[in-house]
Amino acid sequence: MRKSIFITGGASGIGRAIAQRFAAEGWFVGLADLNVAGMAETQALLPAGMSAAYRLDVIDAPAWDTVLAEFAATAGRIDVMANNAGLPAGGPLREITVEELDRLIDVNLKGVFYGAMAAYPHLKAAAPGSALINTASAAALYGMANQSVYGATKAGVKSLTESLEAEWADEGIRVRSLMPSFIDTPLLMNPPNRSRNTPIRDAVVAAGLEFTPVEFVAFEAWRSIHEDKVHRIIGKTAKKMRRVAKWMPNLLRKRARLLAEAHDSSEGR
User: Fold this and answer.
1) Number of structural domains, the chain?
2) Of all helices (H) and strands (E), which one includes residue 203?
3) What is the β-pairing status of strands 130-135 and 80-83?
4) Which keywords does this Swiss-Prot/TrEMBL entry list (predicted)?
5) Which of 54, 69, 120, 172 could crosslink 127 through cysteines, CB 3.0-4.6 Å?
6) pTM for the structure as a whole
7) d(Cα 41, Cα 92) in Å, to the nearest integer?
């Protein structure tokens, strides 16, 4: 029987790359996003007749059940659910508005919970061998200055992944996380918060940090459903951070403080 994967955030970036990877392996792909035009662009890159697209706001819990039921009816089953939709954000907490805080927590954390809850019965029906893949981030490895909200949401995704991996193992459902360093996606062209105009991408470049190609993330997503490893640490920056966090956490602590001081100096504080 043909296998299928449902991917949120499928209009661009990591979601698009995962769609291309799984479609190349012969899987039927379900795309979900608020960006309908972007999903059409993704579908144009996939084999004809091998995908379906759905407009979905991941923080709309009832909509999850409806959309997944529609996709399951079209695809026949759901073997993998990729909880990939997310928003980038940054800056000191003092710059973040309540609205920005709530939106980030809603999309990056609550949306992942909603997706897991809605996908569970479908993944259970397709088990053994079905999987939930959650897109976390290297930001979950250690809290850095100017990433308090974003890092906290991704740390929550990491913790959720570990909990569900234990809860669902006996039912034959794998639960995995992808933890990449910076990915050069269209979302990085946005400023980190409303008080700033500089795109996030510019700050990454100025800091001399490397971008991890989305194809690397898609490759690890494919590997994640075939190997017994809960977290996939992706990219040179992420792997270095993991090593330092384990063996030299004080270095990360110092770096976090330096980042905070550099930000304050740029503001003349």
Assistant:
1) 1
2) helix 200-206
3) parallel
4) Oxidoreductase
5) 172
6) 0.83
7) 35
Spatial separation of the C-alpha atoms in residues 36 and 61, rounded to whole Å: 19
Per the annotation, the verdict on 150 as an active-site residue is yes
Task: Count CB atoms within 10 A of the CB of residue 95.
Answer: 16
- pLDDT of 92: 80
Of 128, 127, 212, which Cα lies nearest the Cα of 178?
212
Judged by average pLDDT, the poorest of 6-20, 150-164, 165-179, 233-247 is 233-247
State how far the Cα of 140 lies from the Cα of 176, in Å rounded to an integer.
Answer: 14
The token duo for 136 is: 């976390």
Question: How confident is the model over 120-135, as a mean pLDDT?
Answer: 97
Active site residue: 114, 120, 142, 150, which one?
Answer: 150
Give the pLDDT band of residue 17 (cuts 50, 70, 90). very high
Q: Which residues constitute the domain of residue 163?
A: 4-266
**CA–CA distances in Å: residue 222 to residues 20, 114, 131, 261, 265:** 11, 23, 11, 40, 43
Q: Verify cis geometry, omega within 30 degrees of 0, for the bond prior to 128.
A: yes
Beta strands in 106-185 (DSSP E): 130-135, 173-180
Number of neighbouring beta carbons within 10 Å of residue 217: 25
Residues near 257 by beta carbon (within 8 Å), at least 6 away in sequence: 145
Are residues 181 and 209 in contact, defined by beta-carbon separation less than 8 angstroms?
yes
In this predicted structure, the answer to whether residue 118 has a pLDDT above a threshold of 80 is yes
- What local confidence, expressed as pLDDT, does residue 200 receive? 45
